[in-house]
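Sequence only, no structure available. Ideas?
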Amino acid sequence: MQTTVSLCLTGNLHCETALPSGATLSIDPALRRDQPGAGPSPLDLLALAHGACMTMMLAKAAKQQGWDVSNLHVSVTHEYGTELPTELLRAVVRFRLPHPFGAAEQAILRAGAETCPIHRSLRAPVEIQMECPQ
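Reply:
I predicted one. Tokens follow.
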């Protein structure tokens, strides 16, 4: 499986993107978070992708068991170091389940969430190839 997105730096650290679905997304640096109309930052997008992926994998595991997890709420906190270059130091993903699940059921849901490829990639070395053709 492969996915490709396209970005264009339009100036002043602002990027316009094209997603495989044809949708577009504006991305701005974190320092503009409080400005009206600012898009999400790359760090926001990483946290969103991490949480969304884990949520979908948890829901898939629940569906396989015949459990309904509609209205599941999730928050993701990514903590970054203050030293340059900045690195992700800690990620906390909090699932607020829509109704009580026992320890055994929670273990199944947690195992499902942990199959998220983004989650797994954040835990392991990933080969990154950069190209700058002329």
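The chain has two domains: 1-40, 41-134.
Hope that gets you unstuck.
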